[in-house]
C-alpha cells in the first residue's frame, strides 16, 4: 500500500483531522514526542539515544526542539509499518487527543518506536504528524552521536544496522513533518555513495521509481560503490522544514 492509498483506509482521515483541529503549536517550537512499545521499552537507553540524535539531526536555527517521552504503549504487533497501515497507531493517537486513551499527542511528530525487524522494507511508516518505526534493539546498541559521526561537515556514517535504524527513524519523522522521499539526495563522496535521510536506502534500491530529487539532482548509479549514510537533511529538505510554519493545511 502506498502513502496515498493509506489515506483511504477507514479512520485515517478522522485521526488526522482530529489531531489537526485539537492541537496547537508555536512556529518557533518543534514538538516531538515518542512512545515505546512494551517490548521496545525492555532495552535500556532507547529514549535517551533517540534524544541524543534528534537534538543534532533536527537542530535548525528556525525552531527549537521540544522532545518528550510519552511512555509505553501496548501494541498488537512489533511490525511498525503494519501498525500504521492498518490504522492502529493513528487511531490510538486520535483517541488520546479526544481523551479516550492515556496518550497525549503533540502537534508536530507523534512517533511510536517498536522492536520490529529492520531487514525488509517497510520498517516504518509516516503520515502528517504520526509515524512508527522499528529497531529498538538497534537503537539501544547505537553509539552516541559524538562517537559515531567522524565526518562532522557532512555527518557521514557507515551503513550499519544501528546507523540505518536511526536514519530511518528520522526519515519517518520527516514524513510526519510533510517531507517526501524526493526531498532526499544521494551523492558520491570519497568513492562512496551517500544517502541523506529522506532518500535513505532507496538510493541503491533498483526498484525505486524516482531517479531525481526535487532538489534537482539525479541519484548516482550505485555500481560497486561503498554505501554510506548521511545524518544531515538535504538543503531542499531543510528549506521545506523551515516553511513548516504552524502546521499542515
Please name the defining characteristics of this protein.
249 residues; 5-stranded mixed β-sheet; 31% helix; 4-stranded mixed β-sheet; globular; 9 helices; alpha/beta; Collagenase (Catalytic Domain)
Would you summarize the structure shown here?
With 249 residues, the protein is of the alpha/beta class. The chain has a single domain (3-242), classed as Collagenase (Catalytic Domain). The strands form two sheets. A five-stranded mixed sheet has the order 2-1-3-5-4, with helices on both faces. The protein has a four-stranded mixed sheet with strand order 6-9-8-7, covered by helices on one side.
Helical percentage: 25-40%
Strand content: 15-25%
Based on CA atoms alone, the radius of gyration comes out at: 17 Å
The major beta sheet can be summarized as:
5 strands, mixed
Q: How does the helix and strand content classify structurally?
A: alpha/beta
Give a structural overview.
This protein has 249 residues and is an alpha/beta fold. It has helices at 3-6, 12-22, 46-57, 80-85, 88-97, 136-140, 145-148, 161-176, 235-242; strands spanning 29-37, 64-73, 109-113, 124-127, 130-133, 156-158, 186-189, 192-195, 226-230. The strands form 2 sheets. Strands 2-1-3-5-4 form a 5-stranded mixed β-sheet, sandwiched between helices. Helix 3 (46-57) links the parallel strand 1 and strand 2 (64-73). Helix 2 runs parallel beside helix 5. The relative contact order is 0.15.
Task: List strands and helices in order, with pairings.
Layout: H1 3-6, H2 12-22, E1 29-37, H3 46-57, E2 64-73, H4 80-85, H5 88-97, E3 109-113, E4 124-127, E5 130-133, H6 136-140, H7 145-148, E6 156-158, H8 161-176, E7 186-189, E8 192-195, E9 226-230, H9 235-242
Parallel strand pairs: 1-2, 1-3, 3-5, 8-9
Antiparallel strand pairs: 4-5, 6-9, 7-8
